[in-house]
Amino acid sequence: MRTINYIVVHCSATREDRPFTVEALRAVHLSRGFSDIGYHYYIRRDGTVVKTRTLALVGAHVKGYNKYSIGICYEGGLDAQGCPKDTRTPEQRAALRLLVHQLLRRFHGEVRVCGHRDLSPDRNGDGVVEPEEWVKVCPCFEVATEL
């Protein structure tokens, strides 16, 4: 099994008023040149957790961190107008908490749980990635305080 140092949470960056199926996610990732879905797990609005990539395979979800990370994506992340928003349903919140808990039990040691945006480059070199340095706002909520 791979060494895991990060569990990285993402959103699909899709509107809360439109479904985004696993098949649609796969089509987007294939169109970007990936061999399949880049995340290891996808959490649908109803809380269903879909395993989309085996954990033994390196993901394709955060450049520079894929080798030592697990990627989890939740369906949504944009409001009905297409602006970033934490659109997680109560079912998604519960499923995400449980999945992260299970993964932390499986992968012992120093595993950081963070959002995609938290792995943006520290452009000013002060040791903190501030919102103005985020490459993306994904996953549209503060992972460190919630998980």
From TrEMBL:
Every N-acetylmuramoyl-L-alanine amidase domain range: 1-128
Domain named Peptidoglycan recognition protein family: residues = 1-120
| Gene Ontology BP term (one) | peptidoglycan catabolic process
Q: Which InterPro entries match?
A: Amidase/PGRP_sf, Amidase_domain, EF_Hand_1_Ca_BS, PGRP, PGRP_domain_met/bac
Q: What superkingdom heads the lineage?
A: Bacteria
Q: Which GO terms describe its molecular function?
A: N-acetylmuramoyl-L-alanine amidase activity; zinc ion binding
- Please state which protein family the record places this protein in: Belongs to the N-acetylmuramoyl-L-alanine amidase 2 family.
Put simply, this protein is called N-acetylmuramoyl-L-alanine amidase
- Where does this protein come from, organism-wise? Bacteroides intestinalis
